Amino acid sequence: MDDRLIDDGSIPLHRRSLLPGEGFFTPDSFDDTVAEREAKSTLEGAERVVIADPDADGLGCVALLRVAFGTAGLLSAGPHEIDDALSYVEAYGDPGIELYLCDLCPDSASDVEALPSVAESADTVRWFDHHQWDEALSETVSEYAELVVGDSDAVCTTDVALEEIEFEFDERYAELAAVTRDHDLWLREDPRSDDLADYAYWADPGEYVETVVEHGADLPETVGAFLEKKRVEKDALIEKATDRAELREVGAWTVGVTYGRCSQNEVAEAMRERGADASVIVKPAGSASIRGTDDFERCHEVARQVNGGGHPKAAGCKPDIYDDMLDYAHHWSTQGAVTKRVILEAFRTLDRADEPTQ
Fold this sequence. Notes:
Blueprint: H1 13-16, H2 28-43, E1 48-52, H3 56-69, E2 73-76, H4 82-92, E3 98-102, H5 115-121, E4 124-129, H6 135-142, E5 146-149, H7 157-164, H8 171-184, H9 192-202, H10 205-215, H11 221-244, E6 246-250, E7 253-259, H12 264-273, E8 278-282, E9 288-291, H13 299-304, E10 308-310, E11 314-317, H14 325-333, H15 337-354
């Protein structure tokens, strides 16, 4: 493929907002090879490793572990990559390793198949989270790990780690947890929380961890300048997705729906201001973000119907509807029509379930 066709630097912003990033077009087999090589390097001789979601909340946990213990290698993983990361620990981790999993909630038992074997060789397996857990999965994981799940309406995972790690943290790290929570729970009362979230998204995970270990939630001026530059494009992509938004009446709720490569929280907020009880932001890569309000706190119930999960007011999913590249081509050319339809049907299923039986 001609690199120019997927180069973000040469594609006009309007068209770029309709397409996934260039990393999408890298085969999974290549990404898997790179990920395994990096995991092997991270695990070689490591006494302590963290499998974490590489957003501000997951990386906040990594920062706290490094402050408390000096070292903690990072294996970045999303919810559907947990078992891959566990398999790397099983293959390359030394016996007696201390393992932490942070800000990750498995969607099914297949996400933790390697956990029993890892737990057998590890000295410690501790799992910190704050998502909505399936009871059966919680029981399964608790057989092999010390699982602590905080109240998803009140704390972020960095809060959980701050409470559970036996170390007397400096006040700035309690403040880091509070500012991380402000964004992760979408409270938006501290302007620094958007900076943390954006910096975690755009920076290398290792760079983010090093920065917040040194500075806490008060990021240095150099980071501020970096964020200001990156936000020019971010704001433009938000505007494109907001302009495409439509409001749909689904049973008892008004649901905002849009499509595009964008920062989902700001777009959801714009739809809320237009009257949406809940918002669906479909991404060009095939996934979708679902955001709620005080009038709709069932996002995780919607997401679970379409291969996802999350919180009452914030969840994500990727419907299992993409069999080949023609399906993705249809997805891009129709601005996510099938994905929108599948997710809206999940809202309708909830609404029908609420109807009183005769």
